[in-house]
Amino acid sequence: SGHVQLPPPQNVTLLSKDFDMILTWTPGEGSPPDVTYTVRYESQERMEKWIKVPHCKNIHRTSCNLTCVLRNFFVKVRARVKAVSGQFQSPWVESQFKEYHLDVELAPPVLNVNVKENLIHVNASFPLATCVESFSWMYDLNLWEAGSEDKKKYEGIFRKNTVTIDTTALRGNYCLSARSSFQSIDFKHSKFSQPVCVLLNHKG
């Protein structure tokens, strides 16, 4: 049989990471150095209809960000990938099904902290793709005196809103940390961000 088949991609996984839905894989054992990959996906709305992903056709890398090609974030999807080299190609290998809305994994937000006379203004920025910016992302903020376990909590703040904290009564080193939160069937949270600490009302 003169038909040589390429080794198929391995460990094909659809994973949600840091607000994105990404297909990842590893090269099949013994893949040639010039191998490229092509990805398609299918949604449970229309089974057996595999949709092309223009930015993941004949690519050299071993991942494909599908977030902004998904037409419906509330339907399960799966993806498949094949290896291509010259006129040879591997069989397609499929991932498991995932749904963005249910399975999204959150990353901690980055805090922007602005200390004024007797106020702190805090807002959070999220590493979001533009196609999911309209989702109702929220964040929770903690404030505490360095070394203390007693945290003041500000919960369920809309992503674009700034929290203003009156610091008139606070003196010393205070720390802030936040996590992303999102309501799907249950509440999801990211880990808390690395604390940002500021010195308040310091009489030098």
UniProtKB/TrEMBL annotation:
The gene is Ifnlr1. CDD domains: FN3. It comes from Circaetus pectoralis (black-chested snake-eagle). This is INLR1 protein. One of its GO terms (cellular component) is plasma membrane. SUPFAM superfamilies: Fibronectin type III. Pfam families: Interfer-bind, Tissue_fac. InterPro entries: FN3_dom, FN3_sf, Ig-like_fold, Interferon/interleukin_rcp_dom, Type-II_Cytokine-TF_Rcpt. GO terms for molecular function: cytokine receptor activity. Residues 8-103 form the Fibronectin type-III domain.
